[in-house]
Amino acid sequence: MGYLSRDKANLQRTFDPAEIPADTVSYCFLSELRFSGTAWGAEAEYQFVFDQGRLALVSMRNRQQSPVVVDFADRVFQRRLATGLRGQLLGKALGLKNLRNPTVLDATAGLGTDSFLMAHAGCLVTAIERSPAIFALLEDGLRRAAQAGDALETHLEAARRMEIRRGDFLMMDWPDRAYDVVYLDPMFPTGRRKASSRKGMTMLQTFASEDQCESELLPQALRCARRRVVVKRNRRSPELAGVKPTLKLQGSRSRFDVYCR
Ligand SMILES: C[S@@+](CC[C@H](N)C(=O)[O-])C[C@H]1O[C@@H](n2cnc3c(N)ncnc32)[C@H](O)[C@@H]1O
After folding, report:
1. Every domain of the chain and the residues it spans
2. What is the reported pTM?
């Protein structure tokens, strides 16, 4: 199972694979993980569990760390959604004032927070994630959002505007100028001290920091974009691939570098 070593951490599961919905793309990945209780399992750093119908990743080394779940119905996230993107830096970076319902390729989807925000703001989002473990969490969160009841009608609409694909953006075939916007938020290689204290970020760093090929992302993104490429950076991070953007939007914690075509 090559992807396990690539994912760096040892993983185990404590649920019956029969619990996984049959149309789940990450079914193979989740079902191939070993059951807990074995000697191998005892060394695992992370454990996948089904907790109240939600897939969660639990740290075995640090019991203080909250389980990582993708929950687009989370109250804090609800408040972010309610604020809307148009007046925010991300909305400005995407050019939402002039672009109506743009197609967006989120080439580094992670746990899908930015993708969902963009879909909620009306963008048609295709989100790519290469880590099978992170993809499994994202897929589960999106599956639940797509089943939300009347109270979360806007979730349903956002979930319908979002398509997720497992794979490496750099290894996939993309037609030239296929999307209005290509969005990149690669893992910052160093210096993201505050990020590791945020929920989910420690886990993301464990699974996603290897084999970045950061500098290759920008040329591929520029080829795929019709209008612009938006790169999320840490406030003080250098420009991606050392290429100067057309526009820099500086926030308190992060920055958006915009490359217009
Ligand atoms: C900082 S996280 C993205 C966080 C995301 N914007 C969010 O809102 O949750 C970066 C993610 O990009 C993924 N990634 C990095 N390079 C990739 C590539 N070439 N293709 C697909 N995914 C990639 C990593 O596995 C990681 O999950």
Report:
1. 3-69, 75-193+210-260
2. 0.91
Closest CA to 108 of 248, 207, 202: 207
Residue 39 alpha carbon to ligand 1 centre in Å: 32
Distances (CA, A) of 86 to 43, 92, 101: 46, 7, 12
> Mind giving me the DSSP string for 178-222?
-EEEEEE-PPPSS--TTGGGSTTHHHHHHHHSSS--HHHHHHHHH
The reply to whether ligand 1 has any atom less than 6 angstroms from the CB of 187 is yes
CB 110 near ligand 1, within 6 Å: yes
pLDDT tens, position by position, 95-144: 999 999 999 999 999 999 999 999 999 999 999 999 999 999 999 999 99
106: helix, strand or coil: strand
Instruction: Identify the CATH class of 75-193+210-260.
Output: alpha beta
